[in-house]
Amino acid sequence: MINESAGAPAPIAAGTLRKSSSVASLRSSTSSIIVPEPWFRYDILPSEWDVLWLSTALKLLLFPSYRSTDFEVHRNWLAITHSLPISKWYYDTTSEWTLDYPPFFAYLEKLLSIPASLIDPMIVDLNNLNYDGWSVIGYQRTTVILTELVLGIVLLKFVRGSVEPPIQRIISASIFLHPGFLIVDHIYFQYNGFMYGILLWSILMARNGNKLASGILFAVLLNFKHIYMYLAPAYFVYLLRSFCLSPAGEVQIKNFLSLANAVIAVFVVSLGPFALLGQIPQLLSRLFPFTRGLNHAYWAPNFWALVTAADRVLLKYARLTGADIIINESGVASSSRGLVGDTVFAVLPNVKPIHTFVITIAFQLIWLLKLWRNPTYKSFLTALTLSGWTSFLFGWHVHEKAVLLILIPLSLLAAERHAYFRTFVLASVAGVFSLFPLLFTPTEFVIEVIYSVIWIGAVYTPLSRRVYEYPKSMSYVIMDALEKLYLAGFPFLLIFVTTFPLLQGGVTAHPDISASAAICISSEAFSCPESENWSAQSSREVSALQFLPLMVTSIYCAFGLVWSFLRLGFIYLHEETTYQGQLSEIK
Amino acid sequence: MHKRAIKHWVIPTILAASTVVKFAIGLASYSGQGTPPMYGDYEAQRHWLELMVHLPLRQWYTYDLPYWGLDYPPLTAYVSWICGIFAHWINPAWVALDKSRGIETPDSKVFMRTTVVLLDALIYVPALLMFVSSWQGTRSKRTQEMSLLTLILQPALLLVDFGHFQYNSVMLGFTLLAINFFATGQDLLGAFFFVLSLGFKQMALYYAPAIGSYLLAKCLFLGPTDGGRLFIRLAAVTATTFILLFLPWLPPFAPVSGILQPISRIFPFARGLFEDKVANFWCASNVVFKWKTWASRGFLVKLSTGLTALGFLPGVVGLIRSGAAMSKTKFEASSVKADEKETPPFLPLLPYALLTSSMSFFLFSFQVHEKTILLPLLPITLLLSGAPIGSSVYSWGVLVNNVAVFSMWPLLKRDGLGVQYVALLLLWNRLIGHNPFRRPQSFIQYLSMAVYAAALLLHALELVIPPPSRYPDIFPVLNVLICTPVFFLIWLWSIKCGVEVGWALGGLGGQAAERRSSEDAGVAATTTGGSFRQSGGRTVSMGYAQTSKMEMRTTGIRGSSVFSEGS
């Protein structure tokens, strides 16, 4: 199947992949005619090479850009895994950035530390904290680009086996060039491209019917980064229903055993050494620190951001009208600063981890029931997306970066039909916008904004043409108009977010203070002692205003993400059976 | 509907994407970052903001000269003044007199980088847009877009302006606007913009012989009455613009000797023959022949001036002879009154003449910097932008562009722009569809292959072997020895093309006129081309004459590739 469709769609493909690549493919494709015989054969089209080379050039240019503390986190892990025996990996506290990813990621760091030590031994020196020499920047940034090739290869494989390669090629390119990866990986610094590569590989295996491989790959992924547990319920139900049980409901004992054994084997390879050392409790305590608050430093655009905002509004209302509402005074000061810590509500009842857990499970169950009854690939993909989405919206202490967990699988559904496409556009615009505050330095901010605008334009134009449907009734027309209105609000939000600090800066004239606070906001959760000191010094009014752009961004994006979540859920429950689309055709 | 919508968005997308690239380059370090006490070009430019904001005009060219005293013409000073006012308004600490020396705060860097991007967007980008619509107005939309992309992401200029830190795109933009206005027949506006270019950076003088002789040729072409009138008008516009630019240093605003202040700063003949290592004739020949020990500076100045003049002479002569010859034939052929607004048929010679002239200055003149290669790069990239892949213009253009970036490697390395160097070469070559590893088929492609191999080898050597202590400069010198022959060849090539195009246009004096009457197939073909332009419109296709001539020689089908390439 893969080989058959590999060479055929070349002419269509060169025409459909627009913007970033078509300009280049114009010349490179004409030039390829001149070449008598390539030196070796590969089934990668010129337009696909264009995407790779041009994006790599941009990523190289981003080498000297802003790096979050995650950069030092990963450098420290290189040092830990290189200079310490495995028994001390999860115990070392030389740096405050302790190892808190599962063992496979630690093994990867160990692997990466070997060339690093040859290039510059200072990189892997455990006590060389905050090392920012040219060698370490170049090396770590390069490893991100290289490991991301996993994603690129998997996305190519998606095109090769797809029913409609030109459309899938656009989707693949859009994922490879996703602003989320550019912002979080190539500027902010993380290895998401690599790990989403494994996730998509697993999904690809599910599409191709190789469910055992899909399950194994997902188990591997879980041992790289445990955040993917958000998706685990959908995997569990899908593999159980469609692989371990026959359509009639009989247990396929052979399948079940092979899957179970394989997954257990993966976990043994990962956790085995630490189990032998008796370190599993320590490892788990590193992986799951339950000491954090409901909201992350900058509120992730989820349901709790809306609830927190509602609490603020109710508090204001209570203060203004003197209404008879019990106000929790400790909640008045809390979280309005947008700082890390326990969120305590002033008016609404407080939220405990168990509440978030129950709500998440309740929503998950709806999707999982549907998936159980209809365990097709497309249904799995939708349930997977919704599963991640539910966790993002209702989970405890969710990071804004986790929005990729929604956006990446959702991209695969984008071209199914107009309803999916609109959901994709709403979620992508809101989700990518919610990532903007991660970068607060002016140049990086300009780059991420322009890049994202080009990206959404380049994805929107060809796909919208492909999926356009005439609205069925008046209510659809109204909904369509409201959604467009919501999207049209983003430019104004952008203007507000960029001009507000300038106006504020003129009033407060504390550039140093606002800078240190901003750095703290954008760094990884953990703690921000210096900004606590600062907030004690300055009045609460000023600080509340300081974080107003972040809160407004978070709330506005949360509306879009909650709405598009409900939208996808509705489509999944109601329209799934009536639709025969490209993904439904795949057995 | 949608297709049209996409087409509308191509050029805005190119502009937006190139802005991303420019800002991304700006993330890198700049020249002289963290190297007190003098820092580098960045500090020079920033320092001028500080001077212009705080000092009266009279002191601009005299204040503390050893610390980056102003040595550019007044327009640079005026632009710095405006930027300085903004800087002072946003944060006075960035431009505090004397106290801000060597300031390296992140926000001041962002401000300075932004001024480059904005000035580029205000002058160079519009000039490029006008170029594709005027010079390539008859070409397909696709070719125009491709050509814009080729020009806007030209790696050498991006690296120097947005990485190293300078405002070359302003000077180049003014010159390009001048060339565009020549193409639309608005010679006075063209002359005005060229004077602005000169007034921004004296380096634009490299183009002056070509531009001057083009305008002279236009006057000759129009004949004694109209030409004479145009000549006087041009002289008036040029002189007035210069006077306005230098007004504060002229009487009555300053004593008569006042003008000497800027002039002596702008033309520093007191410096040496060449600085650093630059891939020109003097530096390359210096390896075997120590000029400085052999001759006095006075003699060297004369010698270099003479060689430079000799070097640009072919371009100048070509233009003027075409002008003169065509003027005669025009009067014989028709009694139509010559129109000043009409584009002269020898316009296609202009880019070649610009290339000959600027390359001659680069190779032979006094006091050349490695960054000056940007000047010859403009005309060759303009030619390249409209050329089909595999044509000789394309191959030469790509080679010179890549070699020019390579020739600046020692500078870029010093600035900490190594990654940007790799990234931009990769980006640009990929975008224009150039594959340096393709099997070569012509002389120029074999040459390119050899040059790239040598360059790669040199990079590899530099990476693994430290320079021997006897020859600490061995790598820059080898770099010069690789680049100079290429620049020398492109200079010869530009002369050859100039002659060929001139010949194809039928403008080489009496013999050409005779040849035309003898119904030579080729010349007949190009004459139709000429009359097409005369009747059809004022726009001319860049590289048209050159390509059509090539086609004639090989296949006999005129210009097929030019018109079919984009469709």
TrEMBL record, chain A:
Its EC number is 2.4.1.-. It holds the Pfam family Alg6_Alg8. Pathway: Protein modification; protein glycosylation. One of its GO terms (cellular component) is endoplasmic reticulum membrane. Keywords: Endoplasmic reticulum, Glycosyltransferase, Membrane, Transferase, Transmembrane, Transmembrane helix. It comes from the Eukaryota. It is a multi-pass membrane protein. Its main location: endoplasmic reticulum. It is found in: Endoplasmic reticulum membrane. GO terms for biological process: protein N-linked glycosylation. GO terms for molecular function: dolichyl pyrophosphate Glc1Man9GlcNAc2 alpha-1,3-glucosyltransferase activity. It catalyses: an alpha-D-Glc-(1->3)-alpha-D-Man-(1->2)-alpha-D-Man-(1->2)-alpha-D-Man-(1->3)-[alpha-D-Man-(1->2)-alpha-D-Man-(1->3)-[alpha-D-Man-(1->2)-alpha-D-Man-(1->6)]-alpha-D-Man-(1->6)]-beta-D-Man-(1->4)-beta-D-GlcNAc-(1->4)-alpha-D-GlcNAc-diphospho-di-trans,poly-cis-dolichol + a di-trans,poly-cis-dolichyl beta-D-glucosyl phosphate = an alpha-D-Glc-(1->3)-alpha-D-Glc-(1->3)-alpha-D-Man-(1->2)-alpha-D-Man-(1->2)-alpha-D-Man-(1->3)-[alpha-D-Man-(1->2)-alpha-D-Man-(1->3)-[alpha-D-Man-(1->2)-alpha-D-Man-(1->6)]-alpha-D-Man-(1->6)]-beta-D-Man-(1->4)-beta-D-GlcNAc-(1->4)-alpha-D-GlcNAc-diphospho-di-trans,poly-cis-dolichol + a di-trans,poly-cis-dolichyl phosphate + H(+). The chain crosses the membrane at residues 187-204, 216-236, 256-277, 354-373, 379-398, 419-439, 445-464, 485-503, 547-566. InterPro entries: Glyco_trans_ALG6/ALG8. Belongs to the ALG6/ALG8 glucosyltransferase family. PANTHER family: DOLICHYL GLYCOSYLTRANSFERASE, DOLICHYL PYROPHOSPHATE GLC1MAN9GLCNAC2 ALPHA-1,3-GLUCOSYLTRANSFERASE-RELATED. This is Alpha-1,3-glucosyltransferase. It comes from Hebeloma cylindrosporum.
TrEMBL record, chain B:
The chain crosses the membrane at residues 9-30, 75-97, 117-135, 147-165, 177-198, 204-223, 230-250, 349-366, 373-396, 444-465, 477-495. It comes from the Eukaryota. Its main location: endoplasmic reticulum. It is found in: Endoplasmic reticulum membrane. InterPro entries: Glyco_trans_ALG6/ALG8. Keywords: Endoplasmic reticulum, Glycosyltransferase, Membrane, Transferase, Transmembrane, Transmembrane helix. It is a multi-pass membrane protein. It is an enzyme of class 2 (transferase). Pathway: Protein modification; protein glycosylation. One of its GO terms (cellular component) is endoplasmic reticulum membrane. One of its GO terms (molecular function) is dolichyl pyrophosphate Man9GlcNAc2 alpha-1,3-glucosyltransferase activity. Its EC number is 2.4.1.-. Belongs to the ALG6/ALG8 glucosyltransferase family. This is Alpha-1,3-glucosyltransferase. It comes from Hebeloma cylindrosporum.
